[in-house]
Amino acid sequence: MREGLFIKKNIDKWKQYQYETTTDPDEMASRFTELVNDLGYSRTFYPHSKVTQYLNGLASRIYLGIYKNKKEASSRIFRFWKTELPLVVRKYHREILYAFVIFLLFAILAAFSAAHDETFVRGVLGDGYVEMTEDNIAKGDPFGVYKNGDQVSMFMFIAEHNIQVSFLVFVAGLFFSIGTVWLLFTNGVMLGAFQYYFFAKGLGWKSVLVIWIHGTLEISSIIIAGAAGLILGNSILFPGTYKRIDSLKRGAKDGLKFLIGLVPVFISAAFLEGFVTRYSTMPIWTSLSILFLSLTFIVWYFVIYPIRVSKKMKLSSSPEKP
């Protein structure tokens, strides 16, 4: 094989290994094995070529990463949250954006439909929920639904429910991403109809200050879980240079990392809904502070921080290009 053809055939894979770093031991071992094979071939046929030097440097870096990973096994959990998950999130920022746009678009369409069809809200939320809320509004307590039941039981139920919904949104990606898009559609429509209902009753901004205390984390989790579902579905539709089954395995592994990363967010949202949202008469500055902190965390950890980690990794270890 000519050297140019050899480089053309493998350059995309090498660049992926170079710039899309991983701390997963199995993935690192797989990459190291492939690079050793490529390096052996390059040393045999192009011993004095720059591509041989490049592969040697790239393989050495991954080997050092494997060695370091073995030494620091005890800090695996810490590294997952500090480095591994942010790098995976950065890799799929485009899917997060797609999920956000899809969800937001359907929510806006639902609000528009509700504004032009009085029966739309009842059709989406159900007569029972609407009538119960109207009774609460008549009693002067429009958000009384969040005050029903024991706080601990409510917290446990909501946490379990949120995890189930997000896992379902992820698994639905197996249906070529269509299942995930459908669930983003249904949840977006529910949110749009729900939020419009309170604005139509003159309680729009009050609902934002109360419901979004937990809704900021809850809705963000659904959107990010939707991104995980798109990752899973796209791994089937667009395997790239991988075999379809190998691409599916990679997509499933990365998507599951998203869900693991969302677990603390699920729990926090459930805690806020079970213990805090019920205090609908709390001072405005308290509500705004919770909203601001929740939104800041989501934007920082799932948008800003992954970009910083990715840039830092590229700058700290970048071997010479062939």
Describe this structure in words.
This protein has 322 residues and is mainly α. The chain has two domains: 3-75; 87-310, no CATH class. Helix content is 81%, strand content 0%. The chain has helices at 3-19, 25-45, 50-71, 76-91, 93-116, 120-125, 127-138, 151-171, 178-200, 204-237, 244-276, 284-316. The two termini are 17 Å apart.
Topology:
Blueprint: H1 3-19, H2 25-45, H3 50-71, H4 76-91, H5 93-116, H6 120-125, H7 127-138, H8 151-171, H9 178-200, H10 204-237, H11 244-276, H12 284-316
Helix pairs in contact: 2-3, 4-11, 4-12, 5-9, 5-10, 8-9, 8-10, 8-11, 9-10, 10-11, 10-12
In angstroms, what separates the terminal alpha carbons?
17 Å
Mean pLDDT: 87
User: What is the total number of structural domains?
Assistant: 2
The structural class is mainly alpha
Low-confidence stretches: none
- Say how many strands there are: 0
Count the DSSP helices: 12
Helix coverage percent of residues? over 70%
Radius of gyration: 24 Å
Q: What is the beta-strand fraction?
A: under 5%
Shape: elongated
User: What's the order of the H and E elements?
Assistant: HHHHHHHHHHHH
Describe the main β-sheet briefly: none
